[in-house]
Amino acid sequence: PAGDPDKGEMGLGAVPGRQAAFREGLALAVQYAKAVECPRIHLMAGRVPLGAERAAVTSEMETTFIENLRYAADILAQEDMIGLIEPINSRITDPRYFLNTPHQAAAILEKVGRPNLKLQLDIFHCQIMDGNLSRNLETYFPLIGHIQIAQVPGRHEPDSPGEVNFPYLFQLLESLGYSGYVGCEYAPKGDTVEGLGWLRSYWESRGLQHGERGKVKE
What we know:
The chain has 218 residues and is an alpha/beta fold. It has helices at residues 19-35, 54-78, 102-112, 123-129, 133-140, 166-176, 192-195, 197-205; strands at 40-42, 82-85, 117-122, 144-149, 182-184.
């Protein structure tokens, strides 16, 4: 749960004073994750409080986040689950979101020091905040637990007009040995199924048959 939307909350992990609500939300998320057999849970950091300067509250928010992440890691380890933290860009999507770059996320994960906490890297947010996608994927690959995609700047299908060459990035992920899911976190420009034409085209370019879950066409 992302907290109280009426109060403008978008996650509770790094929000001082909301530790009890974070723990309650985590327990609920674990129940849902077990029910649908999903081994990964996104632990949202939350927003810088209204009226506060980011620099003035960064230290306290990071301390809170680390405390909550260590607690979450211990709970999730009991269920053989992984916790994910996702940087969300503060230039377009959410100016007040506390966690906004992969560099910040990597530093926090290092301080937390739990092997079942990983980076949820959304290419859309990463491109907007930092670019340098190839090097960032290579640098942070050992930390990555999930990948999400959307074209920049429209946040539509990866073959829509934009800045990112997704076929190149998909091949880079393959060469790095990524075997996880790629989440399509974009807003379809039209019909959802028709919008998946980019995936069919990518399968064809790689010699894969549709619907055979990655079996190579002989």
